[in-house]
Design a protein that fits this description.
The protein is 37% helix and 25% strand. It is of the alpha+beta class and 122 residues long. The strands form two sheets. A five-stranded antiparallel sheet has the order 2-1-6-5-4, with helices on one face. Strands 3-7 form a two-stranded antiparallel ribbon. Strand 4 and strand 5 form a beta hairpin.
Length: 122
């Protein structure tokens, strides 16, 4: 796999991604993403583990996936995620952009993130 980010669902790997709307889009009232209710995560120097207590699933993330998830937890816009990952890991922004989107789509597919109203705060 050429992806920068990967996720293991037990022994099955898939790229993860979901579109996070930029701060400008948030201001226009479009939905944004947040970590879903019942999802817990822990991060260390090697990556992260995500537990979905509602669906009984556990995922492992590499270091890049862990960093993206942390930025998602802090409400960072997709553009900031791309810029930070590109800078920190010295990867071309166009590659990071594609991989971040794939990563976020996979998070959504596995119900690990959900939409929220732009002004709901959490």
């Amino acid at each position: 796999m050429n992806a920068v980010v990967d996720v293991n669902l037990l022994s099955w790997q898939c790229p993860l991604h979901i579109l996070i709307r930029s701060r400008n889009q948030q201001e226009r009232g479009k939905p944004v993403l947040k970590i879903a209710e019942g999802v817990r995560s822990t991060h260390d120097c090697d990556g992260a583990v995500i537990l979905d207590i509602h669906h009984g699933q556990m995922f492992t993330l590499n270091l890049v996936g862990s960093k993206i998830l942390e930025m998602l937890e802090h409400g960072c816009p997709e553009s900031q995620m791309i810029q930070e990952i590109s800078r920190k890991f010295r990867i071309r922004p166009e590659i990071v952009e594609r991989d971040v989107r794939e990563f976020l789509e996979c998070l959504e597919k596995h119900r690990l993130v959900e939409s929220r109203a732009p002004n709901s705060g959490a």
